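hiii, so i know i said id send this last week but things got crazy w the move. better late than never?? heres the sequnce for the chain we talked about at the cafe, plus the structure i predicted for it. fair warning i was half asleep when i ran it
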Amino acid sequence: MDWLPTFDVIRLGHRVDRDKRMTSHLGLTARALGADGMVIFGDHDPSIVQTLTEVSGRFGGKFNARFGTNPMGYLKKFKQGGEDCPAGTVIHLTMYGESHLEALPKVRRDRPVALVVGGAKVPGELFGIADYNVSVGNQPHSEVAALAITMSEWFKSVALESRFSNPEIKVLPSKSGKSIFDRKKEPL
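okay and structure toks below
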């Protein structure tokens, strides 16, 4: 295998007026918990991509945030794959899906994954495009919470800190107080 499987979060239905903080928090959570990138569909808002790019620059690692068009077309093409990589797996987070504890162990780890997080109203077509419709409980709740729980389960055996190379700022675990290294002040 000449490539490594990627894990991207797909945000559907972003609305500038209502979802700016929610979409930013989804991106920050995705980045911190191991995703390689995020594709946002909906209203174009460059400040979200700028924020996620700046955070990656300051705290290290690579995270590719971008806007896309035609989300159902994108997901269909993702599933088919191409010359550079095999067909991908689409996982749709929805409170109407199968329990994440039952579904995630069935998902192949040797191909790219697109984890879809909906917004205002998800097209019904998505339920058929998705390889897995997955829930974190069947009650209304935050998309960020569902994303965090799902990614924690997916990456539970991965040392996430190793993904954040070359940071300007590094927060070190501490029982009390703040322990921060800033490359501009002292080398890491």
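btw The chain has one domain: 7-182. thought thatd interest u
miss u guys!!
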